[in-house]
Design brief:
Length: about 270
């Protein structure tokens, strides 16, 4: 049997205000979330500061230009959370020479150079924009380049930088994201614009003139081409076989990005434009 005293004690026990407790828990939760967000923001700012510092080190480093381009590519991927990077140099026929890729396989570069650059509809759009710009092609597109090259390579969102006033040797920057990574943001575009402008300003003097890209033997051959000599006459003059001459020419085309003998002579025979 329950005594009256026990019953009274139970009745006197304070009743907890459930709404007040709920509000308190919400406040604690919001405070914890706020601390996490602030912490994440601080970590992101710290990460970007480190990446920016490394990019500046790369831009001003005393190292071969191809090495700096590859290192910059890796740092750019971290800076804008991208998946693939590729960079080309400008030639008389466009930005198609001396590719440097990060997470961009050699067979992809070959496929682009031998086939897909001729049906590439994206690069002309980026070129018209100049500076940094981003694009996310429609998934239902029937565009051959987008469907068969970009999408099959896992590249669904792109961002490119082309110098406002490109000249022979000018370097571009191209980054791509997978479908799951999502589109690039205006902040990403601003980051690429800043890096691209520095590349154009700091590395332009490091880009060799057309003739500097060639070996002494290749320069000899190009000089004789400029004189109008035939392949057989060049072979006789230099004492080389026709297959050897063709090998030197193929290498000269690859080094300069020239598409034919006329553009090879023009590119190798004139100083780099400023």
């Amino acid at each position: 049997m329950i005594s009256k005293r026990s019953s009274a004690r139970r009745r006197a026990r304070p009743v907890r205000d459930s709404s007040s407790s709920h509000s308190s828990r919400n406040a604690e939760t919001q405070g914890a979330i706020g601390r996490v967000i602030v912490s994440a923001t601080e970590r992101e700012e710290d990460h970007m500061a480190r990446v920016s510092w490394k990019i500046m080190e790369t831009l001003t480093a005393d190292a071969p230009l191809p090495d700096r381009r590859a290192r910059l590519g890796r740092q750019l991927l971290r800076a804008v959370n991208a998946d693939a990077f590729v960079s080309y140099r400008w030639t008389p026929s466009g930005p198609y020479a001396d590719p440097v890729g990060v997470h961009f396989a050699d067979d992809q570069l070959r496929a682009y150079d031998t086939r897909y650059r001729y049906v590439d509809t994206m690069t002309p759009r980026f070129l018209r924009a100049r500076g940094a710009s981003a694009i996310s092609p429609r998934r239902d597109t029937r565009d051959e380049f987008v469907r068969d090259f970009l999408f099959r390579s896992g590249m669904f969102h792109g961002m490119n930088y082309f110098a406002p006033t490109p000249s022979v040797g000018t370097i571009d920057l191209r980054v791509w994201r997978s479908q799951r990574a999502g589109a690039f943001t205006p902040d990403d575009v601003r980051k690429l614009q800043a890096v691209g402008d520095l590349v154009h300003r700091l590395w332009n003097d490091d880009v060799p003139a057309g003739s500097d890209m060639l070996t002494p033997r290749q320069r000899q051959i190009v000089a004789l081409l400029a004189e109008g000599l035939t392949d057989r006459a060049i072979c006789d003059r230099l004492g080389v076989s026709l297959p050897t001459l063709r090998t030197h020419l193929a290498q000269a085309f690859a080094r300069t990005g020239a598409q034919n003998r006329t553009s090879l002579v023009m590119l190798a025979g004139s100083p780099r434009q400023k």
